[in-house]
Amino acid sequence: MPPNEKKLSNKLLGERSLIAIGRLVPQKGFDLLLEAFAKLKDRYPEWRLTILGEGGLRPQLESLRDELRLGDRVHLLGKVKKPHEFLQQADIFIMSSRFEGFPNALCEAMACGLSVISTDCPNGPREIIRDGVDGILVPNEDVSALAAAMDRLMYDEKERRSLGDRATEVTKNFGLEKVMSMWESLITEVITEE
Fold first, then answer.
1. How would DSSP label each residue in 54-91?
2. Which residues contact 80 (CB under 8 A, 6 or more apart)?
3. Can you name the CATH fold of 16-169?
4. Is the dihedral of CA 30, 21, 13, 63 positive or negative?
5. In which order are the strands placed within the sheet that holds 136-138?
6. Using an 8 Å Cβ cutoff, are 57 and 25 in contact?
């Protein structure tokens, strides 16, 4: 089955779904994501947001969700055994992090053929996403820009599909063969400099 083809059996998410994955900690910026989604809730009543992950901020995020009147639209599912099954059924992946190392969840979402939106936080997303080609980068910690990018992809199915189709190219750029080749080049360069 092609990676961007949604499974119709064992449906885990609603028909129109945003997804995010990560520990429920300040670094991941899920508070920003909830605020951005709240700006769009009336315009897109059929869309739902699912956040996979667990952490110390769960009570605060649940309170913020309820304060923003998103209780029936935002689901904090905790840790799940097979996150790729959720990714394969989602429409858009969002990474709202304030900072990152190498965001594996972003690469996994792209490998599943999802259109992705990410904050242009220090380290990671800019090295993975080709802005406007296989995903969208927005300024870090900018709720309005995040909401605008979400609005753009929630509205435009054609652009969602186009970005998702190109997103799978991440496996060529960060697959085992490519990464091993990069390591070999680096080791050779270091050895020859001595």
1. --TTHHHHHHHHHHTT-TTTEEEEE--S-HHHHHTT-S
2. 52, 86
3. Rossmann fold (3.40.50)
4. negative
5. 74-78, 47-52, 16-21, 92-95, 115-119, 136-138
6. yes
As given in the structure block, the two tokens for residue 5 are: 């083809």
CA 106/CA 189 separation, integer angstroms: 30
What are the structural domain ranges in the chain? 16-169
Count the neighbouring beta carbons within 10 Å of the beta carbon of residue 20: 26
Q: How far apart are CA 25 and CA 42, in angstroms?
A: 27
Per-chain mean pLDDT for the chain: 87
- Per the confidence metrics, is the pTM higher than 0.85? no
Better pLDDT: 176 or 46: 46
* Partners of 147 in the β-ladder: none
